[in-house]
Design brief:
This protein starts with a helix and ends in a 7-residue tail after the last strand. The protein folds into two domains: 19-119, no CATH class; 128-222 and 237-261, no CATH class. It has helices spanning 2-17, 54-62, 85-88, 106-117, 185-196, 242-250, and strands spanning 24-29, 38-42, 46-53, 73-80, 90-96, 121-136, 147-149, 171-175, 178-184, 203-205, 212-218, 252-268. The protein has six helices and twelve strands.
């Protein structure tokens, strides 16, 4: 009896740590010719990816809570792209997992799908890459006029009290060239700055600022915003760069450095096979 109880406990623990997967998945070429893509998890474990490339899927599946920066995804010397079709092909994916599949389960399920249907093979390497360090700009550690300490703790956004309108008091809103909200500096780096710098270098928080901060930041992106970007006031073409805006508005500075980072090297992928 004891051995039976132990076996049941082991099986339960195994099921809790098992990699989530899609039970069924349909993968078809997308011939629309547009640049608009969409990834969406719907109730009941239904996952939809419309007009996505293999590279987009890899970025989403292996990113740390967001797309991989370009300098963290490379293609090995023996990279095989199945007659180069995968370099330009786009796909529509309709997949179904368990009813309790959550957003955090999607990257793992997508990795399993890529390995099975695309025969994706990759490995990790540690390589030296250019990076940035986010530091305080002033020697006296004074912050900029648009960065101030918040009394609300957003280290655990789910536990923070809601805003007066019922929405979350934590997080930020952004569009090309503008962002504002209430976050930790780590979140500011990971969710905003690392995606806003034009060269997509990894950024390490070296400010020493702990706790939660309210911020407002406006800058002029180097590249024009995409056609499907959220609307808003026009961007000032003569405005401050991101680097200048950080110093003048937040009192922070991005310093170029070098560091060793984890890089994903793609070795092989094939045109997706049908079940």
């Amino acid at each position: 009896m004891r051995s039976g109880v132990l076996l049941a406990a082991l099986l339960a623990a195994s099921s809790q740590t098992a990699t989530p997967t899609f039970d069924v998945a349909s993968i078809k070429p997308n011939r629309s010719g547009t640049n608009q893509s969409r990834l969406d998890l719907q109730p009941g474990g239904r996952f939809t990816a419309i007009n996505v490339s293999l590279f987009m899927l890899i970025n989403f599946a292996y990113g740390d809570g967001g797309p991989l920066p370009p300098n963290r995804l490379v293609f090995g010397a023996k990279w095989h792209a199945d007659g180069n079709r995968l370099d330009t092909e786009r796909f529509d994916i309709l997949a179904k997992g368990s009813d309790d599949l959550t957003q955090k389960d999607i990257p793992g399920a997508l990795r399993a799908l890529l390995e099975d249907r695309f025969r994706l093979a990759l490995h990790h390497e540690t390589r030296d890459r250019p990076t940035y360090a986010l530091v305080l700009d002033r020697a006296d550690a004074r912050l900029g006029p648009r960065l101030r300490r918040s009394a609300i703790d957003c280290s655990n956004p789910a536990a923070a009290p809601p805003a007066p309108d019922g929405t979350s008091a934590c997080g930020f809103r952004n569009r090309p060239g503008s962002a504002s909200g209430r976050v930790t500096i780590a979140t500011l780096v990971e969710r905003l700055l690392a995606r806003a710098v034009e060269d997509q270098r990894p950024i390490e928080d070296r400010t020493g600022l702990e706790g939660t901060y309210e911020f407002e930041l406006e800058w002029t992106p180097v590249a024009p915003p995409p056609a499907d970007a959220p609307g808003g006031p026009p961007i000032d073409p003569n405005g401050a760069s991101l680097f200048t805006a950080l110093r003048e508005q937040l009192g922070l500075k991005l310093e170029p450095r070098k560091g060793s980072i984890d890089v994903i090297v793609v070795d092989r992928a094939e045109y997706p096979r049908q079940n």
